[in-house]
Amino acid sequence: MAVRWVLLLVLLMPAVVGAFDGPLPLKNQFPLSLYLLSPRYESPQVEDSLTLNLAYSSTYMVRQSKDYAIGIDLESAEFSLGFRKVVWDSVQLSVEVPVVTFASGFMDDAINKYHEMFGFEDYGRRNRPLNSFLFYFKENGKTLIEGKDGYIGLGDIRFGVKKAILTSDPLISVMLELELPTGSDPRAGIGNGSFDAGGSVMISKDLTNDLKAYAVAGVVFPGNYRGDELIKLRSYLYANTALQYELSRRLLLIGQLSIQGSAYPNTQIPQIDRTAVQFAIGARYRLDKDAVELSFVEDPSTSGAPDFSFNLMYKRVGKEERTRED
């Protein structure tokens, strides 16, 4: 039944008017912050669209301090369905529904060889059995979060309202978001059991006929994490910048750098407390009404983010509201 509704939405989408511009619509897939309203980046332009996203990630982090201990050795896959609708000319309403699974995976041997080939540090990954599952977060010996190998669940559903405030070049919009506690099991890391709210300012600027720049800055106010025990979270800041190059009429190349603060209390574990940094590269292929995008994300800071992520997106655009004045 759900598949039929998705197909119906696609068929009802009218023809696209403008280009499929924008930064890579990525979200930090780190298991501890996945559903703390982790930002998903987008263009300041408002649009009618339907998107299907698949993110596949590998994360390894085993650390301990005086009071806290974390063990993550897993691969995750998140599938999300997003829908955006323009109302009142320059206001966009959006909703995103995610489904996620954490599992032992199959990529450990390939990752070890990748690290060895380029001389990257493996941070103890080789000391773990290949393709084994580990996911826990503890405080003073008490388990706060404990994941389940192979468990599939509904994540926290997010809603957004975006308003264009400057429609020339540069183009500027503001966005408010709310994430509902719909996650199927916060104790297993799927959802956080609380409402999360945030806001951001996004901007785009044409640098040349073929080159465009994007920037986003925002803040998130997460609710407390309601796992096996309550975790008091704090607000965090984030920012993103991206360059988009139009290689041809249909093919876009995008490079992107994002930073995201930690929402967790001071754990004395640098890999949790430090700001997460992610670098991404991707390509977007445009058709008449659709676009397909493939991207790769690397974690240069080894803090608060997966070791790497692959992302695949399909987008169907309907009537695009031109928020830029001619």
Question: What is the compact description of this entry?
Answer:
This protein is mostly beta strands. The chain has helices at residues 2-12, 108-118, 270-273; strands at 47-64, 68-87, 91-103, 134-139, 142-146, 152-154, 158-167, 171-179, 196-206, 211-221, 225-226, 230-231, 236-246, 251-260, 276-286, 290-298, 308-320.
Structural features, described:
The chain has 326 residues and is mainly beta. It has a single domain (2-318), classed as Beta Barrel (Porin), CATH 2.40.160. It has three helices and 17 strands. The chain has helices spanning 2-12, 108-118, 270-273, and strands spanning 47-64, 68-87, 91-103, 134-139, 142-146, 152-154, 158-167, 171-179, 196-206, 211-221, 225-226, 230-231, 236-246, 251-260, 276-286, 290-298, 308-320. It has a twelve-stranded antiparallel beta barrel with strand order 1-2-3-7-8-9-10-13-14-15-16-17. It has a two-stranded antiparallel sheet with strand order 11-12.
What attributes does this structure have?
3 helices, 50% strand, two-stranded antiparallel ribbon, single chain, 12-stranded antiparallel barrel, 8% helix, mainly beta, 326 residues, Porin, disordered C terminus, disordered N terminus, globular
Blueprint of the fold:
Blueprint: H1 2-12, E1 47-64, E2 68-87, E3 91-103, H2 108-118, E4 134-139, E5 142-146, E6 152-154, E7 158-167, E8 171-179, E9 196-206, E10 211-221, E11 225-226, E12 230-231, E13 236-246, E14 251-260, H3 270-273, E15 276-286, E16 290-298, E17 308-320
Antiparallel strand pairs: 1-2, 1-17, 2-3, 2-4, 3-6, 3-7, 4-5, 7-8, 8-9, 9-10, 10-13, 11-12, 13-14, 14-15, 15-16, 16-17
